[in-house]
Design a protein that fits this description.
This protein has about 140 residues and is α/β, with parallel strands linked by helices. Helix content is about 35%, strand content about 25%. It has two domains: about 1-55, 2,3-Dihydroxybiphenyl 1,2-Dioxygenase, domain 1, CATH 3.10.180.10; about 60-144, 2,3-Dihydroxybiphenyl 1,2-Dioxygenase, domain 1 (Roll). The protein is built from five helices and eight strands, in the order βαββββαβββααα. The strands form two sheets. Strands 1-4-3-2 form a four-stranded mixed β-sheet, covered by helices on one side.
Length: about 140
């Protein structure tokens, strides 16, 4: 195989609008090509295709994109940007953007905080209480 594998995201006529939206939120992102049916774009250097496929299919939580954030400022930025203009908050760091795409906005340190049995239980108990994740609260649960 000589080409990379990349996702195709099905939109109801809003593929270019979605690509522009994502490129405005994530650094190192750009639209590569566009026509009335398909837009090819990159988010943080990763290739995506947006397809104007019509109203037949909708996004659901079976597929989500994970954004590992280095600090609370990044969590806040991505959370606030992706829930703006009709996005929806969910639990445990999950959200849907205004196009219905599911995202997980999580601290990069989460895997480490979930690696020790008893401590991980305390961290998970805090995660389950939150919509947007708060790093300090999770660290405090770990250290408790």
């Amino acid at each position: 195989m000589t080409e990379e594998i990349y996702p195709c995201l099905w939109y109801d006529g809003k593929a270019k609008e979605a690509a522009e939206y994502y490129c405005s939120i994530f650094e190192n992102s750009k639209i590569i090509s566009s026509n009335p049916m398909v837009v090819i774009f990159e988010i943080n250097g990763k290739k995506f295709m947006g397809l104007n496929g019509g109203p037949m299919f909708k996004f659901n939580e079976a597929v989500s994109f994970v954004v590992n954030c280095k600090d609370q400022a990044e969590i806040d930025h991505y959370w606030n940007s992706l829930t703006a203009d009709g996005g929806e908050e969910s639990r445990c760091g999950w959200l849907k953007d205004k196009f219905g795409m599911s995202w997980q906005i999580v601290p990069a340190i989460l895997a480490e905080l979930m690696s020790d049995g008893e401590r991980a239980k305390r961290v998970m108990a805090e995660v389950l209480k939150m919509n947007k994740l708060d790093i300090e609260t999770l660290k405090n649960a770990w250290e408790y």
